[in-house]
Amino acid sequence: MSHHDGRTPSRPVPGRRRLAFLALTMxxxxxxxxxxxxxxxxxxxxxxxxxxxxxxxxxxxxxVLLDLWNKQxxxxxxxxxxxxxxxxxxxxxxxLLDVKAGREPDAAVFDTEYLxxxxxxxSVLDLNTVSGGNVSSLSSDFESWAWSTVHVGDGLYGLPIDxxxxxxxxxxxxxxxxxxxxxxxxxEYVQVAQTLHQKxxxxxxxxxxxxxxxxxxxxAWADGAKPFRVKGDSWVVDIAGKESLKVAxxxxxLLDDKAVMTLPQFSSEWSQAYNTGxxxxxxxxxxxxxxxxxxxxxxxxxxxVAPMPQWTPGVASNGNWGGSSAVVFKKSEHPKEAxxxxxxxxxxxxxxxxxxxxxxxxxxxxLKAQKSPALGKPDSFxxxxxxxxxxxxxxxxxxxxxNYGPVANEWFTTEQNYLSQxxxxxxxxxxxxxxxxxxxxxxxxxxxxxxxxx
Length: 454
Fold this sequence. Notes:
Layout: H1 4-7, H2 26-35, E1 49-56, H3 62-72, E2 76-83, H4 91-100, E3 107-111, H5 115-120, H6 144-149, E4 151-152, E5 155-156, E6 159-160, E7 162-163, E8 167-171, H7 172-177, H8 186-199, H9 214-222, E9 228-231, E10 234-237, H10 242-256, H11 268-275, E11 281-284, H12 289-295, E12 303-307, E13 324-328, H13 335-347, H14 349-360, E14 363-364, H15 387-396, H16 408-423, H17 429-446, E15 451-452
Parallel strand pairs: 1-2, 1-3, 10-15
Antiparallel strand pairs: 3-13, 4-5, 6-13, 7-14, 8-11, 8-12, 9-10
């Protein structure tokens, strides 16, 4: 599911003590993940099976989804556990604590960026090890880049549900008023932002948020960045690689020229800037139309969607912000049934047409679901544009082989802290990335992980 519901207005992080159980080497973690027991009895014929299903909120009208499941599988009952943020704890952090305490569910859905972190605990089942599961045959059912995000090393640890390819949501009327073309490259994006603000100092093309690194990360992904990758029994960490530094240097121009706003994303001031027309575009994910309609209702009909401006002219390459995956935990006594359930969540076409698309408004990684009639309708908020035609094209061009790494929380909050300092003029964005690299590498090594760094 989309990340905006899980990260606003900030991205709290479990403290070092809460993540102390991650002090495993990747050798131990990946071996345990691949070879651990997948639980006890898997024979549903002995009687009804009950599976505990963990998911983060919001998860509205889940009865629609579970009623559909129950009709197809009357002998496999689902006990739903919906967990919301509490105080300074995000849902995934609570699930990590449940794993540490041995309270994990049979199956769960959570933000894909946390998957490597859960794999590192050794608690998530490699779906290839489920006898008769035949999960490798599902690869052709999903967007290929999304299929790669549920792998860590050689293991397949989940099935992808939705995705968040970046697009440029922009005000058609504002660009037309100032005779500006929709930017097709990042160089043009910078130029349009500078020109718009020069022509009207009260207008900005974009906001560089101080409370979320998501768009920055997705833009670096589009440029080919690989901040984390597995190499043997180690993690190679390259947060400040050349692709990420290119993003930093490009956006630094806009900060130096004061040609972007720097409001916290999803704050009331930020939302008001869109609703009153002070902000003329939003570089955001496939799930963005829903929240955009809710916080900028006065602007209905004035928007359009274009592909994300490209880093290399003529080369379509995109990044992703958001998306979730479904996993099975090793402690499940019914791994076959749990696998059947997450297959249903991710591939059942009625589940997509009746629940995921209309109720959660997410964009599917499942290729058949991408052809749903619900995604082919004109959208009046966007002047009648069939916006998912553009979103689909963007989804097909997301770069492959991007990995969030085993310490997502630590990475995000560290980078957010340094990028915020850069926005406030205390360092450059490039320096913020280099500081993040040093801090995260030191943290991972302190947790006992094997780390290689450039």
